UniProtKB/TrEMBL annotation:
The species this protein was found in: Waddlia chondrophila 2032/99
Record protein name field: Uncharacterized protein
Source domain of life: Bacteria
Amino acid sequence: CLVNLNTGAKVKVNLSLGPIYNGIYTHWILAIDYSNREVYLEDGSVWKMSWWDSSIVNQWLPNDTVIIGINDGWFSGSNPNMLINVNMNDHAIGNCIF
């Protein structure tokens, strides 16, 4: 679901193309600490991913392109965000810790 932050309108979407190369919302993975489920992005942010999604994050690699999304589903209280991995066509929920 994609949400317009100005109007609150929601629409269902399917990811068919990746984000714009070097766009302001385009991020990529610099490093992953698999044992602690921490994903480090090129903008300096650090994301603690949910243990529920460990098997997903364990397949991710440095340089994978990601989009930051909002988790409005399960466990959204402790994991308010999601990282959508464009290369793997999947996502994992988590929280930005830095």
